[in-house]
């Protein structure tokens, strides 16, 4: 791009300069959190910082920093070219535009999809995913990545937008969608995601470091058939503590 004068100093002969530097991370999941990402970019251990101050006030090297994910930046050029009204013509009143999802699980067609905000889960599962494999029953869908939530079959006609997913107990998150059929064990599903988040915990705060380990121990016992009375209540209490007291959204 620099060869064509589209990047660097004096773009296209103007007095406007703009450059891009790509830095490869080490792959830590926690660095999806903005302050942990800043720490990594500064060459430090990728762990979240306490906020405030927020990155917009004090970010990279203590300077005001605007942080967005790749999906947001990928939309910028099209919005600049076609205008705000164009992107606002997609989606709902409160959730404008489109969203990319990684569609996976027990469906006929998996892959990376882009859909307008407000599309229903049913339209995604049946219309894009081709329905459940082997004509089995739809059991639920996990959205939002490892820190997201599971929605039951009763939520099939739920609109996929920020407000609706949050109200239903899940999140948009990183755009993950995993479809489950009647054979999927929800305990195994919870254990799978919790084992990931527990392994990826940076260990900085006690609620996440210790709480996720305790929750995983309980789920592993249950999955082996060694569950005890009160396990579900313990999980609920631990989950609330980890969520409310952790430093970042990984917990």
Descriptive account of the structure:
By secondary structure, the protein is of the alpha+beta class. It has three domains: 26-67, no CATH class; 98-184, Roll (Ubiquitin-like (UB roll)); 196-245, no CATH class. 35% of the residues lie in helices and 12% in strands. The protein has helices spanning 34-41, 70-82, 84-88, 121-128, 162-167, 186-200, 206-223, 231-245; strands spanning 98-105, 111-116, 138-143, 149-152, 176-181. Strands 2-1-5-3-4 form a five-stranded mixed sheet, with helices on one face. A hairpin with a 5-residue loop joins strand 1 and strand 2 (111-116). Helix 6 packs antiparallel against helix 7 (206-223) and helix 7 (206-223) packs antiparallel against helix 8 (231-245). The protein is globular, with a radius of gyration of 21 Å. The two termini are 40 Å apart. The mean pLDDT is 94. InterPro entries: NADH-UbQ_OxRdtase_51kDa_CS, Nuo51_FMN-bd, Nuo51_FMN-bd_sf, Nuop51_4Fe4S-bd, Nuop51_4Fe4S-bd_sf.
Write the topology of this structure:
Elements: H1 34-41, H2 70-82, H3 84-88, E1 98-105, E2 111-116, H4 121-128, E3 138-143, E4 149-152, H5 162-167, E5 176-181, H6 186-200, H7 206-223, H8 231-245
Parallel strand pairs: 1-5
Antiparallel strand pairs: 1-2, 3-4, 3-5
Helix pairs in contact: 6-7, 7-8
GO molecular function, one term: FMN binding
Family: Belongs to the complex I 51 kDa subunit family.
Pfam family, one: Complex1_51K
């Amino acid at each position: 791009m620099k060869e064509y004068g589209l990047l660097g100093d004096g773009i296209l002969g103007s007095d406007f300069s703009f450059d891009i530097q790509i830095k490869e991370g080490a792959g830590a999941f926690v660095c999806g959190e903005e302050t942990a990402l800043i720490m990594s970019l500064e060459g430090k251990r990728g762990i979240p910082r306490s906020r405030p101050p927020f990155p917009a006030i004090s970010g990279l090297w203590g300077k005001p920093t605007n942080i967005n994910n790749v999906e947001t930046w990928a939309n910028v050029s099209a919005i600049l070219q076609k205008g705000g009204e164009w992107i606002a013509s997609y989606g709902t009143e409160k959730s404008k535009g489109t969203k990319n999802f990684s569609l996976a699980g027990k469906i006929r067609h998996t892959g990376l999809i882009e859909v307008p905000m407000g599309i229903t889960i049913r339209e995604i599962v049946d219309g894009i995913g081709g329905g459940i494999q082997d004509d089995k029953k739809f059991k639920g869908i996990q959205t939002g990545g490892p820190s997201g939530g599971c929605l039951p079959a009763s939520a099939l006609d739920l609109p996929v937008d920020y407000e609706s997913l949050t109200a239903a107990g899940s999140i948009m998150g990183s755009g993950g969608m995993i479809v489950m059929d009647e054979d999927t064990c929800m305990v195994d599903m919870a254990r799978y995601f919790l084992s990931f988040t527990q392994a990826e915990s940076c260990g900085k705060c006690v609620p996440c470091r210790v709480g996720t380990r305790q929750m995983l121990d309980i789920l592993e016992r249950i999955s082996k058939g060694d569950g005890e009375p009160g396990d579900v209540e313990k999980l609920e209490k631990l989950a609330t503590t980890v969520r409310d007291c952790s430093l970042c959204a990984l917990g």
